[in-house]
Specification:
The complex is a heterodimer of chains A (486) and B (535). By secondary structure, chain A is an alpha/beta fold. Chain A has 18 helices and 13 strands. The chains are: A alpha/beta (486), B alpha/beta (535). Chain B: Belongs to the class-I pyridoxal-phosphate-dependent aminotransferase family.
């Protein structure tokens, strides 16, 4: 068996590092996967708190599916529609699917705005949607501004195959990491000075990892800025239905609507685009439903053609189309989603608060908290943060995500996901945190020694990593409940 | 050393002629600079000034970018596979910005892709969408023969579904309906159970002479992303693949859109029954080299699309040798391997050829999918099968942009694991395709239209050159237009497939019912009459 590995035969992309998987960020995944927590079978295992998955409302979905067997087309009631669905590969998507998604997006925004089904374009999950938008708006070498901290996946999804650059706009805790206009303007000017051609600004609202939303005025100012400078505004709104508390969510769609209804017509809508997905709001990442919604006809047309590379399975379109057309179900689902997230968030932050751990105050959305552990760092540096993180993984046995992986300019912040587990697991996690803080409090000064003792170097070879990551037992990203089922 | 700008420094020998005037004033200080004395300021100022003016000139004369919102008339169809331009919504009627209207800049590749596609392949598909034939509801509508779809065996699948319902959705657990295993994140390159099931299916389809290893497989949402992902792994921007013509029009999109890789046609002729020859390949390779293009691989479809012929063992060996010699990749698109109807030749997968041989397997890759052989294009299931670890690793990472939906994977695991059903399906499918082929090609034959010899695929490659007035692409397109608008039959003209000989048309016949065939022949016959009588 001749299997000569000839690297010169491969493209630069295949050989290169653009996939970002060699980052130490993945140590946590490895630890989780080699030792996953399970109530009975492995109560001392690592609890997965680094995966932003929403599993709080699966019961609602299961109930609906039971009551609507035709939606699945794999049932006696549904099979009559099978042929048409199986053969359907039109990249416009099933009309029922587009209509249902448009309606759902409107409902999520309290019906304050409506969405045009003809502007709904499919993509391979939010991952595919982001990449498609980057392909449409920017050429290789051009850049998008992104406020920090931001989702680590952007480094790969927006840059890898597109050749587009990301220019971070640093935000800090002094004002809760909210994007300030002066920082945005400065970053834009600086990019221009460095001859970087900025094509747009990418906002994640509600924010990952902060779990906060932008207020209407800030959003208006940002839109005015991008409008004035003739650059695109891409709003990633994939967490829009996870807003569980006040203040009320304001979507860019509402700003657009406001501009038009008032008759001012100042905004150039060709610059405004929304990225959406059902992965977070509904907890359906496995279904790979990504949406590009643009107010720019040319972008819609271009994205639609590119959607051939990531069409949503017609079977899934059919199921989602039926499910989201059921107004009663949607109402109930959204209500339950918010209520359960609020409850879980409250329980979690409450538990953390009781041991003196603060989380970002204004967070009222998302599937995670932005935890402040700055005072537990032996020094305010990324190395100290990484050291603390390794302790959390190896001693406390929780997989959380360190702020540095989100390009946070201040060390000591961690994103902790709470919606991908049941109440019991959450209690266990809180218990472990309590124990850790108690221990750490006593050993505050000598904490240095403590850290040094438990040799935390997790060294591993990049290649073994990759095989491991892509193995069926891959940590990326599997939820603990999948394990629990077996 | 400073110099006042108005004075001319005295250059040492060689002295320039003083009579030369302004030109010399320029040269002299430059010469002075070069010789290290005098004219430093002037010598540096003047070139800088020239350069500045050059930049200014270029800036002013740069062609303006095209405006973002191109206004094309909206197409009537809302569900066409081609670009359907949207009607403007009223909210966008007034677009005055604060200052003057500056066109919005998209990426240049975005603009190129967004342009309406005027290839007859796409235009035809659009037209059918707007006026689709239906025996009862729209008997005067356009009959679709331009999309290679197979609806002949849906009854088998439907029956299987009825008998295997819950399992098919939930993956065999039977009892409790659980969304958990379906909705949560799964490995981006497909569940291992699906890979195992696909490997089994592929070996049944390709003939039992070859087995496929699930760990050499990467799954993604369709053959469309499969070929794009493979291209990203094998070639850099600006490189090229050799591809025999005529070829599937979709490759122009799949390969060229975003990867920046070129396709170099290797023309095949009717005298060879459009079979690929190494001579032609070699010629094309050398020509590409001369043009400075780096060829990274050969891409071919086997069974071929649109002709439907299959490559012999000998040719496959020759192709492998050629690839080895030139140190390039082989990409074999075998998506129609299960749609065979020929009895004369046996399909041989490239996997079978290299099994057990001392070839450098690291350059061989296979594209597969369930859109043709299992008639499930809507489900989006594609495969990259490779012998190269690095390609597999890279492709796996790229599947995050195009993963197969989890419930669809579960359904397919169930279906593909039912060996008895699959065997029955493959065999029945072949029989029914054969039957339609006989009917259809027989019908064309009676109209005096011959088809190329073919053994596979869901279509036939018909020679209608006798009907065209002008033996050229123009003549061919005129005939195509007549067939579409007068005959109300959509076929794919050879020019859309880059065929070098005009007059050939691809006609897909597996989405027809048997009773529709006489109607199709009648309509084509009518157009044929028109052409013969000189209209």
């Amino acid at each position: 068996m001749v299997f000569k590995l000839n690297n010169q035969l491969l493209s630069r992309m295949a050989i290169g590092d653009g996939h970002g998987e060699n980052s130490s960020y993945f140590d946590g995944w490895k630890a989780y996967d080699s030792d996953p927590y399970h109530h009975q079978n492995n109560p001392d295992g690592v609890i997965q708190m680094g995966l932003a998955e929403n599993q709080l409302c699966f019961d609602k979905v299961e109930e609906w599916l039971k009551k609507n067997p035709a939606a699945s087309i794999c049932t006696p009631e549904g099979v009559a529609g099978f042929k048409d669905v199986a053969i359907f590969q039109d990249y416009h998507g099933l009309p029922q699917f587009r209509n249902a998604v448009a309606k759902f997006m409107g409902k999520v925004r309290g019906d304050r705005v409506s969405f045009d089904p003809d502007r709904i374009v499919m993509a391979g999950g939010a991952t595919g949607a982001h990449e498609t938008v980057a392909f449409c708006l920017a050429d290789p070498g051009e850049a998008l501004l992104v406020p920090t901290p931001y989702y680590p996946g952007f480094d790969r999804d927006l840059r890898w195959r597109t050749g587009v650059q990301l220019v971070p706009i640093e935000c800090d805790s002094a004002n809760n990491f909210k994007l300030r206009m002066e920082d945005l303007e400065a970053a834009y000017e600086m990019a221009k000075l460095n001859n970087i051609r900025v094509k747009g600004l990418l906002l994640t609202n509600p924010s990952n990892p902060l779990g906060t939303i932008l207020d209407g005025d800030t959003l208006r100012n940002i839109a005015a800025f991008t409008n004035e400078n003739n650059i695109h505004l891409i709003c990633d709104e994939i967490y829009s239905a996870t807003v569980f508390g006040k203040p009320d969510y304001v979507s860019i769609a509402e700003i657009v609507d406001e501009d038009r209804k008032s008759g001012r017509n100042v905004l150039n809508l060709d610059l405004i685009h929304i990225v959406y997905s059902l992965s977070k709001d509904m907890g359906f990442p496995g279904l790979r439903v990504g949406i590009v919604y643009s107010y720019n006809d040319v972008v819609v047309s271009c994205a639609r053609k590119m959607s051939s590379f990531g069409l949503v399975s017609a079977q899934t379109q059919h199921m989602i189309g039926s499910m989201l057309s059921d107004a009663e179900f949607v109402e109930e689902f959204l209500g339950a989603n918010r209520a359960r997230l609020a409850e879980r968030h409250g329980a979690f932050t409450g538990g953390l608060g009781r041991v003196g751990i603060r989380c970002l105050r204004s967070s009222n959305a998302g599937l995670f908290v932005w935890m402040d552990l700055r005072r537990l760092l032996k020094e305010q540096s990324v190395e100290a943060e990484t050291a603390l993180w390794r302790v959390i993984i190896n001693e406390v046995k929780l997989n959380v995500s360190p702020g540095s992986s989100f390009h946070c300019s201040e060390p000591g912040w961690f994103r902790v996901c709470f919606a991908n587990m049941d109440d019991e697991t959450m209690e266990v996690a809180l218990g472990r945190i309590r124990a850790f803080v108690a221990k750490h409090k006593e050993a505050m000064k000598p904490a240095r020694k403590l850290c040094a003792q438990s040799s935390l170097k997790l060294s591993f070879s990049g290649r073994i990593y990759d095989e491991f990551i892509m193995s069926p037992r891959s940590p990326i990203p599997q939820s603990p409940l999948v394990r629990a089922r077996t | 050393m400073t110099e006042s700008p108005s004075s001319e420094p005295e250059p040492p020998s060689p002295k320039p002629r003083a009579a030369a005037g302004n030109g010399m004033r320029l040269v002299v200080p430059l010469q002075g600079v070069v010789q290290g004395r005098g004219g430093l300021i002037l010598g540096s100022l003047i070139p800088c000034a020239l350069f500045y003016f050059l930049q200014l000139y270029l800036k002013r004369h740069r062609s303006p970018k095209p405006p973002a919102s191109s206004s094309n008339p909206p197409s009537p169809s809302s569900s066409s596979p081609n670009l359907g331009d949207l009607a403007r919504t009223s909210s966008r009627s007034n677009l005055l910005g604060r200052g003057s209207i500056v066109p919005v800049r998209l990426s240049s590749r975005g603009m190129a892709i967004a342009k309406p596609n005027d290839s007859p392949y796409y235009v035809g598909l659009d037209k059918v969408a707007g006026d689709r034939f239906h025996r009862v509801d729209n008997p005067e509508g356009i009959i679709q023969l331009g999309l290679s779809e197979n609806t002949l065996c849906f009854d088998l699948i439907e029956r299987w579904m009825k008998e295997n319902l819950m399992d098919s959705l939930m993956g065999g657990d039977g009892a409790e309906l659980s969304i958990n295993g379906m909705a949560t994140y799964q490995p981006f390159d497909g569940l291992m159970e699906l890979k195992v099931a696909m490997a089994d299916f592929m070996s049944r389809v390709m003939g039992k002479g070859v087995s496929f290893n699930p760990s050499q497989m990467v799954l993604m949402a369709g053959a469309t992303p499969a070929i794009e992902i493979l291209t990203f792994c094998l070639a850099d921007h600006g490189n090229a693949f050799l591809i025999p013509t005529p070829y599937y029009p979709g490759f122009d999109r799949d390969i060229k859109f975003r990867t920046g890789v070129e396709l170099i046609p290797v023309h095949c002729r009717s005298t060879d029954n459009f079979m690929l020859t190494v001579t032609a390949l070699d010629q094309a390779y050398n020509q590409a080299r001369k043009r400075g293009l780096k060829v990274r691989g050969i891409l071919f479809s086997n069974p071929s699309n649109p002709v439907g012929n299959i490559l012999s063992r000998e040719t496959l060996y020759e192709l492998l040798d050629f690839a080895q010699e030139k140190n390039i990749h082989i990409i074999s698109d075998e998506i129609f391997a299960g749609s065979l109807y020929g009895t004369a030749e046996e399909f041989v997968s490239v996997a079978e050829i290299i099994e057990g041989e001392e070839f450098d397997k690291s350059r061989v890759h296979i594209i597969y999918g369930l859109s043709k052989d299992l008639s499930l294009p809507g489900f989006r299931v594609g495969v990259v099968y490779s012998y190269n670890e690095n390609v597999l690793a890279a492709a796996k990472r790229l599947t995050r942009f195009s993963s197969i939906s989890a419930p669809t994977q579960r359904l397919l695991i169930s279906m593909l694991s039912d060996a008895k059903f699959i065997e029955e399906y493959i065999e029945t499918n072949r029989k029914r395709i054969r039957r339609m082929y006989d009917l259809f090609v027989g019908g064309l034959d009676q109209l005096g239209i011959r088809c190329a010899k073919s053994s596979g695929g869901l279509y036939c490659w018909a020679d209608m050159s006798v009907l065209i007035a002008l033996y050229s692409e123009k003549g061919e397109l005129e005939l195509w237009d007549k067939l579409l608008n007068v005959g109300k039959v959509n076929v794919t003209p050879g020019s859309a497939c880059h065929c070098i000989e005009p007059g050939w048309f691809r006609c897909c016949f597996t989405a027809l019912a048997e009773e529709d065939v006489p109607l199709v022949m009648e309509r084509i016959g009518k157009v044929a009459e028109m052409c013969k009588s000189g209209h």
